[in-house]
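Quiz preparation item.
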């Protein structure tokens, strides 16, 4: 079996179909909503939370059984019903398209898999065993969650701001690289936001003074 190609896909505005309205479908929809996808659920019944999202206009709900409806408009297709024959029917219809297809509990029918993921704002760390052991992927994710705490969300935003500032204010590429490496020191991760900014400003001032000598 060839390995999967790891990518992060920009889902904003992409049409997605989720067949099923239970807890598994809800988790899939929640993840897709976070990425700005346009989601249609096909299911005669849905969870209270999915119903709430429908009322809020976040998702579209087609209150019907899946019976071979055309899925060609959709970029992402997820089959997450409790009925294997329905999920397989979705697969049969979806494979005629060029869509990404995910069939619950049938990794052999999927042309993409969703990794176990740690999210800290713009920092995204994904772990996958290519379907071999989801339990191991979850174990590794929990370990990463402990290592990369919530403080990394603000820290990554800080790094993004500093990158722009350094590119604007420091002309020497070698010096820029040295600054970027310095900002990776754990002191900047652990420091409160205001102190972190003060430390970075002091670093830039020192560098500018050296450049003027």
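Solution:
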């Amino acid at each position: 079996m060839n390995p999967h190609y790891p990518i992060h896909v920009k889902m904003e505005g992409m049409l997605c179909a989720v067949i099923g309205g239970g807890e598994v479908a809800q988790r899939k929809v929640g993840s897709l909503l976070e990425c700005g996808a346009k989601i249609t659920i096909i299911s005669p019944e849905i969870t209270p939370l999915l119903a709430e999202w429908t009322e809020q206009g976040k998702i579209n709900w087609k209150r019907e059984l899946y019976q071979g409806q055309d899925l060609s408009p959709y970029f992402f297709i997820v089959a997450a019903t409790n009925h294997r024959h329905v999920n397989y029917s979705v697969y049969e219809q979806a494979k005629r398209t060029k869509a990404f297809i995910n069939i619950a509990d049938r990794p052999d029918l999927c042309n993409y898999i969703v990794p176990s993921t740690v999210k800290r704002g713009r920092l995204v760390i994904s772990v996958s065993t290519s379907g071999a052991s989801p339990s191991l992927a979850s174990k590794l994710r929990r370990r990463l969650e402990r290592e990369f705490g919530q403080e990394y969300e603000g820290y990554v935003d800080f790094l993004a701001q500093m990158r722009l500032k350094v590119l604007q204010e420091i002309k020497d590429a070698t010096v820029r690289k040295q600054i970027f490496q310095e900002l990776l020191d754990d002191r900047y991760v652990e420091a409160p936001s205001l102190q972190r900014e003060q430390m970075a400003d002091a670093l830039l001032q020192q560098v500018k003074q050296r450049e003027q000598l």
